[in-house]
């Protein structure tokens, strides 16, 4: 074979091999695309999307407190009750943000002279206002379901900023204070919605 022709054939063959290598393996069916840790991959994809949890972005300066085991258990109870009510992650963020403002996620009993009338529980609901008995409103599931039942009756709650939705249900003397807890509430829902 002519040297020039031989070099041309080898050059074309070299380009073909190099092109194949640059494009990846020739046999794609043997490529292992299984994640090395499928459990971690599933957890990451199962977390609620931030745009679902905080569709309007947070409003104002955000507060944050360190939570003890009881407060985390109360947040989980709110999430469980939200699922039981067949409501979504956004409803859980609103409920937890409300409970943060009302009680710092503590299931409060009567506070004596410091009590706001007869307000008690996570949401500081009042028996005298028809929220239920003291025993009921200090039960995290019951109080959350009562809050969510009222939230469902608010037209367009899904599209409202947290503080507007919470205030519509709670009728607080400090209506804008709910907004400061939205990020921490969303973080809790993201961490515990699928746990």
Give structural notes.
The protein is an all-alpha fold and 195 residues long. Helices cover 52% and strands 0% of the residues. It is built from 9 helices and no strands. Helix 5 crosses helix 8. It is globular and about 40 Å long. The protein starts with a helix and ends with a helix.
Sum up the structure in keywords.
single chain, 195 residues, globular
Give me the strand/helix succession. HHHHHHHHH
* Annotation, overall tally of beta strands: 0
The proportion of residues in beta strands is under 5%
Question: Which ranges are low-confidence, i.e. pLDDT below 50, for 5 or more consecutive residues?
Answer: 1-45
Specify the biggest β-sheet: none
Shape: globular
Mean pLDDT figure: 79
Distance, first to last CA: 71 Å
| Radius of gyration computed on alpha carbons | 28 Å
Helix content: 40-55%
Any chance you could write out the topology, listing elements then pairs?
Layout: H1 3-22, H2 38-46, H3 50-53, H4 69-84, H5 89-103, H6 134-137, H7 140-152, H8 162-170, H9 182-192
Helix pairs in contact: 4-5, 4-7, 5-8, 5-9
Q: Would you summarize the structure shown here?
A:
With 195 residues, this protein is an all-alpha fold. It has helices at residues 3-22, 38-46, 50-53, 69-84, 89-103, 134-137, 140-152, 162-170, 182-192.
